[in-house]
Q: What sequence folds into this?
């Protein structure tokens, strides 16, 4: 570890048409962390990820990735799944290969090395045997893993994942979580937007609680308390104490 | 009595039929490839609007004695820019922007055409198509423009693929999504120009959408989808022109109807048993 944080966000303001989505957001994610970005719907999670990537121009503020101004090619990104078009005739390998496009620049085609990297990435997420399958033929959990392979094929050290658990059943969620923990073990940093509190509480090292502003950030064990949850989720949350773990009810 | 071989060969002994086949085949091949993106992105309305918008340029060029292909291309390109601009700035929803520009440009074309009553007759060949009146000059123009469009698709293959599949991801990878989309609109506009004489403005959308929709039912990858779409396009051109020749009906209409017939045949072949056997759900009555 170099001591430089993987991600530093300072005094970030952003919004749409005069409506504020993010208010003076500041936090730090250390390298090699599995960090949760937690907040209710409309709390600005997606906007924050898009602002970090430079897809949404913030009004003001600073974003540093590994100590340097953000270069989106260093960041693997998985958008919310409903954004992608699943009806397209395209194989898992084609999708993983897209992770290489950013390095190629305009007009250049992916070569053999790019194919190898894409296959390695599929192998890493346990999808190499389905490389030639059409995306539509894969289950929800398998599709997410292909999208993560795409981020890995980018050889990015920081992965930004927007609601990867949405719509998955419990076993698929668990497998995905296992994969995230493995990737963290290899030194990658993951920032995962989710509103699944239980998952963050039990499996994530760090958490950023967001509701337009940062309510709290830091090691999950230290920042997760009733006050933070109330401020983050407000009336969307009913707290039930279950042996020290907070369960969420929207 | 005519043998089958004679019957099959007979139309192509006439030079105007050869030219008709070449022009229709070039137009349907180009439109089938670009049409795959039109179908996958759900922009069929745009595929109808841009040809109509091209008509204003065709009419203007016709009246001023200029090149109708150039006129059509310029008008369609300007219209696609205007549609993109209105839609992107958040002023209008994208299909509303397309509708406004479509109506305006097509009406402008009609207005220009009405200035000279005797020209209106000739202009109608661009609206409804007249492949039998295609000249060798037309074929060269169509081949050049069509070849250019296909070269652009090949050149920007990965950019078109990723922006069609996942625009958010494409932007995150640093691909200029808006520019690629504008380029694709331009390619659709150029297809309209290529297909102008073969099927006419009203039916260009059919060449863009129907072969690609047929291929989508069968293909497992985008290259396969494009190859199949081109196959369907070429087969429709051939069968359509035979029908037109022997039944003495409009060639552009028979080409399009042949394509539609192929679509329904494939649909029935692929989904037919299920489509026919599926009962209405039990409603409790």
A:
């Amino acid at each position: 570890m170099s001591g430089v944080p993987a991600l530093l966000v300072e005094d970030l303001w952003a919004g749409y048409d005069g409506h504020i989505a993010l208010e003076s957001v500041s936090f730090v994610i250390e390298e090699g962390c599995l960090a949760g970005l937690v907040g209710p719907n409309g709390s600005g999670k997606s906007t924050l990820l898009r602002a970090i990537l430079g897809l949404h121009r913030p009004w003001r503020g600073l974003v540093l990735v590994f100590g340097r101004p953000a270069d989106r090619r260093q960041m693997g990104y998985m958008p919310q799944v409903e954004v992608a078009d699943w009806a397209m005739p395209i194989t898992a390998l084609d999708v993983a290969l897209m992770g290489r496009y950013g390095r190629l620049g305009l007009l250049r085609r992916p070569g053999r090395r790019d194919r190898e990297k894409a296959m390695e990435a599929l192998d890493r997420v346990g999808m190499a045997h389905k490389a030639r399958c059409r995306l539509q033929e894969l289950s929800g959990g398998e599709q997410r893993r292909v999208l993560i392979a795409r981020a890995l094929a980018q050889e990015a050290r920081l992965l930004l994942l927007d609601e990867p658990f949405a719509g998955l059943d419990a076993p698929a969620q668990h497998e995905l979580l296992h994969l995230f923990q493995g990737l963290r073990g290899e030194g990658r940093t993951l920032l995962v937007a989710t509103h699944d509190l239980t998952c963050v509480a039990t499996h994530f090292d760090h958490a950023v609680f967001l509701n337009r502003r940062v309510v709290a950030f830091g090691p999950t064990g230290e920042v997760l308390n009733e006050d933070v949850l109330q401020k983050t989720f407000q009336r969307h949350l009913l707290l039930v104490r279950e042996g020290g773990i907070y369960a969420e009810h929207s | 009595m005519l043998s089958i071989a004679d019957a099959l060969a007979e139309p192509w002994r006439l030079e105007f039929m050869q030219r008709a086949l070449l022009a229709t085949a070039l137009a349907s091949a180009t439109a089938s490839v670009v049409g795959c993106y039109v179908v996958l992105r759900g922009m069929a309305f745009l595929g109808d609007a841009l040809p109509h918008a091209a008509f204003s340029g065709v009419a203007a060029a016709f009246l001023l004695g200029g090149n109708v292909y150039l006129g059509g291309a310029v008008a369609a390109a300007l219209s696609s820019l205007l549609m993109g601009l209105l839609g992107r700035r958040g002023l209008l929803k994208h299909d509303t922007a397309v509708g406004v520009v479509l109506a305006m440009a097509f009406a402008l074309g009609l207005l220009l055409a009405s200035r000279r009553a005797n020209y209106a007759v000739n202009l109608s060949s661009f609206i409804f198509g007249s492949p039998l009146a295609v000249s060798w000059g037309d074929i060269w123009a169509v081949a050049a423009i069509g070849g250019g469009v296909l070269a652009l698709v090949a050149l920007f293959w990965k950019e078109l693929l990723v922006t069609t599949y996942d625009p958010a991801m494409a932007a995150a990878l640093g691909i200029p999504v808006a520019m690629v989309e504008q380029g694709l609109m331009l390619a659709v506009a150029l297809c309209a120009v290529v297909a102008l004489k073969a099927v006419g403005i009203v039916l260009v959308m059919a060449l863009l959408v129907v072969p690609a929709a047929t291929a989508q039912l069968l293909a497992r990858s985008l290259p396969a989808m494009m190859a199949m779409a081109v196959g369907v396009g070429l087969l429709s051109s051939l069968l359509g022109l035979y029908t037109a020749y022997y039944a003495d009906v409009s060639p552009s209409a028979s080409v399009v109807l042949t394509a539609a017939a192929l679509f329904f045949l494939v649909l029935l072949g692929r989904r037919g048993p299920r489509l026919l056997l599926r009962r209405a759900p039990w409603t409790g009555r």
Chain A has nine helices and twelve strands. Chain A has a mean pLDDT of 83. The CA atoms of residues 2 and 44 of chain A lie 30 Å apart.
